[in-house]
Each structure stands twice: as C-alpha cells, then as structure tokens.
Amino acid sequence: MSAPLRLVLFDVDGTLADSQAAITGAMSAAFATVDLPAPSRDAVLSIVGLSLPQAMAQLAPEAGSTAQAALVDGYKQAYMSARQAAGAGHSPLFPGAREALDALHAVPEYLLGVATGKSQRGLDALIAAHDLDCFVTRQVADHHPSKPHPSMVLTALAETGVDARHAVMIGDTSFDMDMGRAAGVTTIAVDWGYHPAERLQADHMIGSFTELEPLLEKIWKA
C-alpha cells in the first residue's frame, strides 16, 4: 500500500527568501511618494505576510483610504523596479533553503506548495529568478483574503487532494501560524524570520533547514 500524499506549504518572505532589505527599501520609497515619514524597520517587518492593503492600513492608519491606496501602488512600483535591477540578488534564498526544497521534492509522496502574501507577479518573478520549479500549488495575495484567513491553505489542500492531517504550514510570522491552525494543518515556525520566535506559538520550531526533513518524518510517523 502506497503512502498517502503529504503537502508541505511554505511562506516565502522571511521563510524561504531573505527579502528584508527589499521590503524595507520599497516601503520607504512608497511613503516618500505621498510625503509621509517612513515607518521603522521593526514596524515594517511586523506586517510582512499581510496583503498590501491590510499592511498599509496598519502602517498608516491616519492616512485615509486614498493615501493608503497610493502607498500600495507606490510599494508595488518600487519593489518591481528594484527587483528588475537586482535580479536574483534582490531576495536571496536563506542558507539551506534550496537544498531542503530539492531534498523534499525528491520524496515521492511529498507535494510542495507556497502560501504567500506576495502578488502573483512577485512570486512568479522570484520563482524564475531562483529557478524554483518544485511547487505544485501556488497561493498568492491576488486571489485570497489576507493572512491569517485560512483560504490559501484550504485552497492548496483542495488543489492537491491532501487531507489537512497530512499537511504542514511552514512560516516565520504569527500570521502564518494562525492561518495554518485555522485550516487544521500542523504548523512549523522558523526562528530566522521577521516575527520574534516567542510570538509564533507553533506546533514545532526549527532553527535551520537541516532540521526540516527529519521533523517531517517524525510528524508523519507519529
């Protein structure tokens, strides 16, 4: 009897890709376009994972809907311009990320996917820049409510036909963990991302990508 399919879902920014400089730079440029002071680095990193309208509403609550919409547009433009100029160096993968993806992709019953607050265009560009062709399901902000709503995970489960008990959500923010819990999947936090580890309240925590495959074997053996 063959093993059931397992779904391994990854967040992107702060989990697979170190996009901190790209995000903070684009945010500063966006705020400059509407003559508002840029939020602090900590404030910006605290909203990573949210869809852009929700992020701007948190970062500039007094700005009003028109200015917040301008911030969203300004961020998109600044991020895209910087990405086109920098290529793969714009958002480098964290150490061990590619090796972990390659190893998991080689396991026949493992399906890999993404659940990210990035746009479809942003995710496609990052996948192309790093030649990541291992994801069978790609859930982005364009098509879902913002995290922590479980829509992304639930859609990934439906697309792959995997039961929630055979799936994990791997991320670096409380939004990722709350989304995974709401969808009924096991949550795995990484401790190198944008939210403090103590905030995450995940089912499991890893300190490097080398710990991921053994942890998955342990989870699904149990």
Task: Provide structural commentary.
The chain is 45% helix and 13% strand. Strand 4 (167-171), helix 8 and strand 5 (186-190) form a beta-alpha-beta unit. The longest helix is centred in the middle third of the chain and has 22 residues, at 65-86. The mean pLDDT is 94. It is of the alpha/beta class. The protein has a 6-stranded parallel beta sheet, with helices on both faces. The protein is built from 9 helices and 6 strands. 43% of the residues are buried.
Number of strands: 6
> Taking strands numbered 1, 2, ... along the chain, how are they ordered across the largest sheet?
3-2-1-4-5-6
How does the major sheet shape up?
A: 6 strands, parallel
Class from secondary-structure proportions: alpha/beta
Descriptors for this entry?
222 residues; alpha/beta; six-stranded parallel β-sheet
Structure in a nutshell:
The chain is α/β, with parallel strands linked by helices and 222 residues long.
Structural topology:
Blueprint lengths: L5 E5 L9 H14 L7 H6 L5 H8 L5 H22 L10 H9 L4 E6 L4 H11 L4 E5 L11 H10 L6 E5 L2 H10 L2 E5 L13 E3 L5 H10 L1
Parallel strand pairs: 1-2, 1-4, 2-3, 4-5, 5-6
